[in-house]
Specification:
The protein is of the alpha/beta class and about 475 residues long. Helix content is about 30%, strand content about 35%. It folds into 2 domains: about 325 residues, Rossmann fold; about 130 residues, no CATH class. It is built from 12 helices and 20 strands. Helix 3 packs across helix 4. The protein is globular, with a radius of gyration of 23 Å.
Length: about 475
């Protein structure tokens, strides 16, 4: 059993962990040997302290000490750590008290074989806040892993927190959805990792969602993460690998709906590491949001386009313009029937939509009474509401991805031989949320479900068969 699990861990290490680390090292020159200091702004200070959360040395930097509002800057994976913010700090320190640090396990901070989970880092952020921010109102800017930590902290310790600025947040969506995103981009970009034997990637490149998933995989991963011996055996005790795998295995569904402070979301349009779908999901779930996409930019807009990123940050710090709540669309009698079509986009209100033998069909900002998808691939539904009397979404032998919005009906989803990937979706069924007439695979990321069989947050992979609805 553990032999096969070791293979799974190795695959996750190659796909999720190695990719995250390689992107970081590409964005910033190699600084593992000697990490430069942050800007020597008059009045700034930097020091190593022993924090009680990790019981190790932690690098702390402060600037703009006399300003009344604090900003915490939380970096992502990579030994460059807080150096990621070097272009932004001088501008922020003119008006704000800036506090940044190398997270435990990164940069100049101690590197130990401990569980670097989002909850661990959330406790660390609380310690930083208590000791350096005190009672000041404050704002958090988080990038990549730092964005995920920011969400975790905001859901649990929101006192005096004014707003969040989230850039290219890692995690949140289910690890299987993330893995498929990374592998798809590796194929498109002919990444060097593809030089590995074909069999290594068979699980990921097949069109069978969940090929790696097993009912107890999360439990096994958790056992590895919680055991110093197993972390050493499978992850070499490497903080990068531990933090990345802990993030990939973390379930945000019980936290993300509790975030109630305004959030400005910034995303690189060409991010190959964290799918822009995550930004759309956050924009759909969080109560007050503003979503900014930076064109021609990858996972690190902070360094790839520093002037543009700094401008977006300055705007984000003062904006009071938030995403409008969902507005019910004016009803129409429109009916869409698509057959043998590809690369089409539908939007607005439809009485019904029927799609058969199609590929790459998108439905955005849409409202419909009924959607039927037959023998079609790469069907995407974003920020849409389907409120059916009997069935909202009926799918057969198709592959569908739904992000944001809601599906509701007597049976919200009726599936046969289909692969359905739902992220940030509310699924409501008076009789069943998901019912299958033939076995179907369903992946939920930070979604919500209401039915006679389930009620509450849902995050995981399910095989739905006749007679066993969700």
């Amino acid at each position: 059993m553990w032999l096969n699990f070791k293979k799974t861990i190795t695959l996750f290490s190659l796909i999720i962990i190695a990719t995250a680390c390689s992107v970081s090292s590409q964005d910033i020159p190699n600084t593992a040997i000697s990490i430069p200091s942050l800007p020597k702004i008059p009045g700034s200070r930097e020091h190593l302290v022993v924090d009680p959360v990790s019981n190790g040395e932690t690098y702390i930097y402060e600037a703009g000490m006399g300003n009344q509002v604090s900003i915490l800057l939380i970096h992502g994976v990579g030994d460059e750590g807080s150096l990621n913010w070097r272009h932004l700090i001088p501008e922020l320190a003119k008006q704000y008290h800036v506090v940044t640090f190398d997270l435990p396990g990164f940069g100049r901070s101690s590197k130990q074989n401990i569980l670097y989970s989002p909850l661990f880092y959330s406790k660390f952020i609380q310690w930083v806040k208590d000791h350096y921010v005190h009672d000041r109102p404050f704002i958090i800017i988080g990038h990549s892993l730092g964005g995920a930590v920011t969400l975790c902290y905001a859901a649990t310790q929101p006192d005096n927190l004014q707003r969040l600025i989230l850039a290219d947040v890692s995690g949140v969506i289910h690890r299987q959805a993330l893995t498929e995103h990374i592998v798809k981009n590796m194929h498109e970009k002919n990444d060097s990792l593809l030089k590995q034997p074909t069999k290594l990637f068979g699980m990921f490149t097949s069109h069978t969602l969940g090929a790696m998933e097993a009912p107890d995989l999360s439990v096994k991963l958790e056992k590895v993460l919680e055991s110093p011996d197993l972390r050493s055996r499978y992850l070499s005790g490497d903080p990068h690998k531990i933090a990345s795998l802990a993030l990939a295995n973390f379930d945000f569904s019980s936290l993300i709906y509790r975030v109630n402070v305004p959030a400005i979301i910034i995303w690189g349009a060409n991010d190959q590491t964290t799918p822009i779908r995550t930004g759309k999901l956050l924009n759909s779930i969080l109560e007050k949001t503003q979503f900014n996409i930076v064109p021609e930019t990858g996972h690190n807009p902070i360094l790839e386009r520093p002037d543009e990123f700094n401008r977006l940050i300055q705007d984000a710090l003062v904006t009071e313009t938030w995403q409008a709540p969902w507005e019910k669309l004016q009803k129409t009698d429109r009916v869409a029937v698509l057959s043998n079509k590809q690369n089409m986009t539908l939007t607005g209100h439809y009485k019904s939509i029927e799609i058969s033998d199609c590929k790459s069909i998108r439905m955005e900002n849409l409202e419909a009474d009924f959607i039927k998808v037959i023998e079609s691939d790469d069907v995407v539904i974003e920020n849409s509401r389907v409120n059916g009397k009997d069935v909202a979404l009926h799918t057969r032998e198709s592959r569908i991805k739904v992000t944001g919005g809601q599906l509701s009906g007597e049976t919200a989803v009726l599936a046969s031989g289909s692969i359905i990937d739902l992220a940030g979706v509310k699924i409501t069924g008076k009789k069943a949320a998901v019912q299958a007439t033939n076995g179907s695979r369903v992946l939920f990321s930070v979604s919500r479900i209401e039915s006679p069989f389930n009620n509450g947050n849902i995050h995981g992979f399910y095989v739905v068969v006749p007679g066993s609805p969700l």
